[in-house]
Input
Amino acid sequence: MVETNKVPVDTFPRLMLQHAQNRPQHPAFREKNLGIWQTTTWSQMAEEVRLLACGLAALGFKRGMNLAIVGENKPRLYWAMSAAQCLGGVAVPLYQDAPAADMAFVLENAEIDFAIVEDQEQVDKLLEIRETVSGINHIIYDDERGMRDYAQTGVTSFASVQELGRAYAAAHPEFFMQSVQAGQPDNIATILYTSGTTGKPKGVCHTHAAIISTGRTLVEFDQISQDHEMLCYLPLAWIGDFLYSYGMSHIAGFCLNCPESSATVMSDLREIGPTYYFGPPRVYENILTQVMIRIEDASWIKRNLFHYFMSVARRAGLRILDRKGGVSLADRLLYALGEILIYGPLKNVLGFSRVRVAYTGGEAIGPDLFDFYRSIGINLKQLYGMTETCVTVCMQRSGDVKLDTVGLPMAGVEVKIADSGEVLVRSPGLMQGYYKRPDATAEVIDANGYFHTGDAGFFDSDGHLKIIDRAKDVGKMADGSMFAPKYVENKLKFFPFIKEAVAFGDGRETCNAFVCIDMEAVGNWAERRNLAYSGYADLASQSEVISLIADCVEKVNADLANDALLATSQIHRFLVLHKELDPDDDELTRTRKVRRGFIAEKYAVLIHALYAGLSTQFIETQVKFEDGRKGIVSADLEIRDVKTFSAHRQAA
Output
């Protein structure tokens, strides 16, 4: 093993080699393949990366070049990131579910010549893009299934490149270590493209120093060690995966576990039993939906036991988790019994039995959803940040968690509130800038080095940051009261029957909403009631389903009535959309954030119907299918009025 202790450990390649030297037999990766978990140690990983890096160099990859990486969470795709960085190049992961047209912009903008992809599907996309976008001369694939008859120029297997690397390394024995030692902490390590909520994605350039500094702060904050286990299932192109999986594993030395496929994540999660977990709110929403479906299918006794002990958990669980007083002996005994009968088995089914710390971020999580997980004993903590700040700006400390805040600023991070109410951030994890966009960089980073987040927030009396909503989305109702659509939408999405919601009310007399049902949860509900349906649009249009959603909306209104700031944001009218909001139809970003402005424009006729007092509205909508074809879906949508409540919960 090459000695690395004479060189500062301040880049990802040097961190990798340090682990390979200090803990060569410790697992670095596990991948489930054909039902069996395969382990790669740190020393084996370093050798795999060395051969790949030398192979890329043999093909002409040079310092300063960008390497595109497309696919699901596979060890070889993570090794591709390492190989690019070992050569002084930059890893540019892309969203694997993006259609070719969306990928084309990033590939052209990032000036991609080399790409390493997972399988035939991604190869086909890049070959299609290559017809119109210059560059992309080298496409390297991991999974060789279906690739036998591909004879296009520059299409090569991962294994073949490593064989090239073996010969190149033999001819140039000093090349690899010289390349690693030439790397500097202020070199760009990765370019991560934003989700494009308001326009074309921008490439966020992060240095080795920025990500490593942030990661070390997180390791110290929650005492993350080499003995932790994590399941990698989030998109490679998202900062959440790059920092919390790739970055943190290089710093702490723990093992990354890659699922067999996206369809097996939940079962693989149970098998691994991670001790350290990270996911955006939508993941926790989906898990809760699965729980509630199973509860509804359970026997009468089990359903009642679940609801009884969940009431105990809501009453006592949070204080027990945070080791605070004020819990009676009776409640402690009931909670202990609930742990045996309900909470423990539930956590085991979810794969959370061994979780010591779990994080959520990316967008605000609904307080009710947050409360559910913490009340059953899962140490779920919310953090605040964005791609440009390397995620971590604020985080909740164990034992000091408030449901409606994102915690205190992290060590070394400065947060202040502008006169306009916008949150400003200055930190070691701040991006170097947007790739080839100095104009856009200057718009968000001021002369004092503060990043303008675009979020509205304030500090509470304990110094915790509370985020209200995106500053551009926070508005006022016609009576001057505050309107924060995301807050309302999160409350709606707590119900397992509601997958997505979009609230409207800025400048208006009332708040109205679009709702998308959760096909699985509502389908299960309908089947138990012998309601026949042919698909999403048919199910969403049924009167019984609309009544089910109306009950959920009215419960949200009753809850909002007790909120002094947002009582006037109660929903007066709603409709259930005839289709799911879809990233392929540009209604959501790839990280499933609502593109509010686009939706308001696309469905203007429905918004008009909501506020014009109509009871139905016909609409035709163009949709994109997975194979690239386009079609039209149409429907007559029913619009419902729902009850609103006074502060004392009297029907209005």
Q: What stands out?
A: The chain has a mean pLDDT of 91. The radius of gyration is 25 Å. Residues 475-641 form a domain with the GMP Synthetase; Chain A, domain 3 fold (CATH 3.30.300.30). The chain has three domains: 12-27+40-207+235-251, 279-470, 475-641.
